[in-house]
Amino acid sequence: MVDGAEAVYVGIDVGGTNTGAGVVNAEGRLLATVKKRTETSDGDALVRQLAEMVRELLTIRSAEAGFPSSPETGTLRAVGVGIPGFLDARRGVVRHAANLPLRDYPLADRLGDQLGAPVILDNDVRMYAYGEAAVGAAAGYDDALVVTVGTGLACAVVHRGRLLTGGDLAGEIGHVKVDGNEYACGCGMNGCLETLVSAGGIVRQAKELMRWKSSVLGEWFPERLQAGRSMTAKDVAKAADLGDAVAAQVFERTGRALGSTLAVCAALLGTDVIVIGGGVSRAGERLLSPVRRALVERIHPLHTERVKVTAARWTDEAGVIGSALAAKARGEHTA
Amino acid sequence: MVDGAEAVYVGIDVGGTNTGAGVVNAEGRLLATVKKRTETSDGDALVRQLAEMVRELLTIRSAEAGFPSSPETGTLRAVGVGIPGFLDARRGVVRHAANLPLRDYPLADRLGDQLGAPVILDNDVRMYAYGEAAVGAAAGYDDALVVTVGTGLACAVVHRGRLLTGGDLAGEIGHVKVDGNEYACGCGMNGCLETLVSAGGIVRQAKELMRWKSSVLGEWFPERLQAGRSMTAKDVAKAADLGDAVAAQVFERTGRALGSTLAVCAALLGTDVIVIGGGVSRAGERLLSPVRRALVERIHPLHTERVKVTAARWTDEAGVIGSALAAKARGEHTA
Questions:
Q1: How far is CA A271 from each of CA A256, B8, B94, rounded to the nearest angstrom?
Q2: CA distance readout (Å), A90 to A48, A61, A93
Q3: Alpha helices of chain B — where are they, by DSSP H?
Q4: d(CA B45, CA B19)
Q5: Measured between beta carbons, which residues in chain A are less than 8 angstroms from residue B300?
Q6: Which residue of A92, A227, A245, B134 has the lowest C-beta tally within 10 Å?
Q7: Using an 8 Å Cβ cutoff, are B252 and B122 in contact?
Q8: In this complex, which of B166, B188, B264 lies closest to A270 when CB atoms are compared?
């Protein structure tokens, strides 16, 4: 069906805990994936692990395609790596990545040497956005804003299929102070949007509200019971589904806070679609509805008639596919 | 000094009241300008006026350069026109422009036919931003946000010397609702940022505050005196210079409201420089200082250490120069 010389691209989504990798064809179709616990002893060991994952993927793929192949057959054209942290993407250097043993580390060159293929780096949220724009919920729109809400909150802007490149700090909308919010943020500031709009932020708000209002969450997680597991954003979502007033109020505040910030972004960029991904996006309409309401209240109908707010198509896969396709695009751009 | 075949470019900044035009060389140096009251009877009459202005400019320039020239000598390479309103820039069509007799009018083609040179159109704020990025206060920065505060409030994003193209509605940050503000806006909404951050917004706030606090503005513009001229933003700036508390408070609120919105924009884009132009920017530090304070309060020091907030270099000229250079760039891009 496919021939041995078909060009393939590998995308790797490196996380502080797990790392996923996948091989895609030129159309962005995912042919095989692998996932491992991230090697965090040092940079070179991580690079060896990533190279091993790439080789494994190509073997899997070759076996599936029904003929022998290897990295040496020349089918691997480029590799893209998404990393959470501060990067010098142009030079392929990781300047600092939380929970990873990388500081001013030339990851692109080191991995490229191991694989004999060009390697590009970019921020994980940007790679995810690129994937959603290429083959996900943002595909076909001119101006997309892709937001990930999970442990943290960040976003990336895609214009006609191309990532908008700002400085290292572009997309950090999670660290803008919100009026009337004073929660301390991990970044050192107080009141950041991320202290509300994140998995931790949802739990934090629920715990605070439970002091004043009764909630099914109080039954599930009684304060004096130290033994049980900790409350998660998923629990708050479950409570919301049962009509719990505390949980409903938490999602309302969270979605509105996010929507108020996205209103400025959409007016600035003339956005056509806002795609919300990341773990917390599994809350679906509980989160998306108040985002839409905030947009309607804050920006002109000419905008809101046009801006679609939707959940991401992919969870982890968009990061892998986006990394692979970004590597492909970079190759075409510089060829 | 220059020879007859030197390439020149004309930029035209069409306003509801006056229209300015200028001729620049390939480096963006302004060689001559003309200004006229805008012809508003109909589209074709306006096009004839613009063509006449271009011919006049080329004659002025020829006379200055000390040799005879005309549009026919081939020195005119391209014309750029900045228009306030909704445009289809790609097709060169004005869809709707307030105070101008243009509706779905193919201005680029019509003017091009008259001049025998390529004509491009874009939104006036974008042309202005392009000028500030090329030869003004945003020159040399990777990621610039150029804001104009005058009758209205709008902005444009420049990344490495290129205008970021969103939809028709990109840059309309003046029409985002601000918490705690309920002034009716001309756009049909209530509480838009522009109802505070604009020439009219500054006067509106001053008049409201004067009801509660004594101000030198009350002496200058006594309520019962119907004969005198109306208060302007310039008067409020003058009062601020005299230490007037009302005027100071108005600029503080205006600058903070603007800064709070720009904080989101800067975090989103990783902005290096925020350039504030338009008539109200003549208030200088009275406006810029509270903008900077709002940024420091709202975004991370990593951002604020980097973002410079500065007044525009040019007033009207940036629109003219930007239009001319945008036409030049378009020609090179499509050549």
A1: 18, 36, 21
A2: 22, 30, 8
A3: 43-65, 107-115, 124-135, 199-210, 216-220, 233-241, 245-269, 285-298, 301-304, 317-334
A4: 14
A5: 169, 172, 175, 187-189
A6: A227
A7: no
A8: B166
Distance, CA of B108 to CA of A197 (rounded, Å): 46
The angle at the Cα of A262, spanning A260 to A268, to the nearest 5 degrees, equals 115
Chain B contact set for A164 (CB, 8 A): 159, 164, 269
Min Cα distance B226 → chain A (Å) is 36
- Please state the φ and ψ torsions of residue A136, each to the nearest 5 degrees: -125, -150
Q: Are B126 and B156 in contact (CB under 8 A)?
A: yes
The DSSP secondary structure of A88-119, one letter per residue, reads ETTTTEEEE-TTSS-EEE-HHHHHHHHHTS-E
Report the residue of A164, A182, A268 to disrupt the B interface, i.e. the one with the largest count of B CBs within 10 Å: A268
- How much is the ipTM here? 0.91
- Cβ(A275)–Cβ(A311) under 8 Å? yes
Q: What is the pLDDT along chain B (335 residues), one digit of tens a residue?
A: 344 568 999 999 999 889 999 999 998 999 999 999 999 999 999 999 999 999 999 987 777 665 555 544 448 999 999 999 888 988 999 998 878 989 999 999 999 999 999 999 999 999 999 999 999 999 999 999 999 999 999 999 999 999 987 777 899 999 999 999 999 998 899 999 999 999 999 999 999 999 999 999 999 998 766 667 899 999 999 999 999 999 999 999 999 999 999 999 999 999 999 999 999 999 999 999 999 999 999 999 988 888 999 999 998 899 999 999 999 998 786 64
Please answer whether residues B177 and B198 qualify as being in contact, where contact means their C-beta atoms are separated by less than 8 angstroms: no
Among B316, B333, B331, B261, residue whose Cα is nearest residue B294: B261
B49's tokens = 């006026």
Beta strands in B124-186 (DSSP E): 143-149, 153-159, 162-163
In which residue are the tokens 């616990």 written? A37
CB B81 within 8 A of CB B92: no
What is the distance between the alpha carbons of residues A12 and A323, in angstroms, rounded to a whole number? 6
CB B131 within 8 A of CB B140: no
- The residues that bridge with A102 in the sheet, in sequence order, are none
Which residue bears the tokens 């996205």? A262
Chain B CB within 8 Å of residue A187 CB? yes
Residue type (1 letter), B64: E
Residues in contact with B165: Cβ distance below 8 Å, sequence separation at least 6, in sequence order: A159, B89
Is B226 in a helix, a strand, or coil?
coil
Chain A residue with minimal CA distance to B182?
A298
Angle, CA B32 vertex, CA B30 and CA B36 arms, to 5°? 120
Residue B304, helix vs strand vs coil: helix
The answer to whether A128 and A320 have CB atoms below 8 angstroms apart is no
> From CA A38, how far away is CA A41, in angstroms rounded?
9
Q: Which residues are within 8 A (CB) of A140 and not within 5 positions of it... i.e. 6 or more apart?
A: none
Give the bridge partners for B149, in sequence order: B153
